Amino acid sequence: MTVLKGVDSWQEPTAAQIATAKANGISVWAGYFKIGNDGIYHGWTDATFRLVQAGGLHTLAFCSTRADPAALKARAAALGIVIVADVESSVNGGDGPTVDPWLAASGAHLYGGGPRGDGTIPRHLPHGHTAYMVADYEQRPGWGTASWPIGDPKPNAPVAWQYAGGGSHPWGNTDLAIYDEAFVTPGSAGADMTPAQAAQLAALYEIFFSPYEAGGAPWSNAEVLRRMLAALGAPYSPSSALPFVPTPVAPGTGLTAEQAAALAAIPGLVATVDAIAAKVGKDLA
Predict the structure, then answer these.
(1) Which of 114, 191, 194, 208 could share a disulfide with 187, CB 3.0–4.6 Å?
(2) How many domains is the chain built from?
(3) Are residues 109 and 66 part of one domain?
């Protein structure tokens, strides 16, 4: 899965700063929405978000769950960006029972502390939000290169990892993060998909490509098949209707005719594979 280097700041960047960031490999510069006394220190103007976009970078807006979700959703849609609810005590008092319905109403992603922080993200992993961003400044495996701390429980959704707080850089004082491209792309999970379908797609994409991106060896065909069926909620048994035998249908497929037929019969699989193929084509273009 494509990952992007990103920064965020409450200070609104100039065109020169944006150009410097881009020249240094930065692909995302995130800002903030603010409505009244909602706990956000400073909100960017629409002009600044558009300046970032004009400079060739992705952008998004962190926001507070104390602000009107409908208003934030409408503003984000007008700008063509995603919003991320900043759930920490300094902004909105921290996590609580109002967060889930607010996220549902706004369509926002969730930002919060990880298992070595305030625990917001671990608490919300079972809730099926659209995307998750963890704040974790400890130098865990994957620090500075991966979009999620390697070894931590990870959701079947686009993710991001803010791995360093404010610091001085050639482009200015910013936080640092690594984003899945899908995290910063509005509707990338598929506007025509249910959350469950989007989660299946994310899980299958990880199955096919994570071993390669980590620099390791690909899984065996049997392991890929087992993981695919688990992601799709289908049972797996080596002696069931999907037996794994070494005789492939055609060179390179690794599947028998019976396996191929059984996989084709799983509802939605063809559309899911087509979506993966489209994503892969975009990544390789």
Answers:
(1) 191
(2) 2
(3) yes
Does residue 158 share a domain with residue 46? yes
Identify the burial level of 70 via C-beta atoms within 10 angstroms of its C-beta, where 0-12 means exposed, 13-18 middle and 19 or more buried.
Answer: exposed
Which positions ≥6 away from 35 have C-beta within 8 Å?
A: 43, 64, 67, 68, 71, 72
Per-residue pLDDT tens digits for 92-112: 767 888 899 999 999 999 999
pLDDT tens-digit readout, 128-156: 899 999 999 999 999 999 999 999 999 98
In contact, 3 and 142? CB cutoff 8 Å: no
Domain-embedded: residue 190: no
Q: Which of 121, 112, 60, 63 is nearest to 89 (CA)?
A: 112
The verdict on 180 and 199 lying in the same domain is no
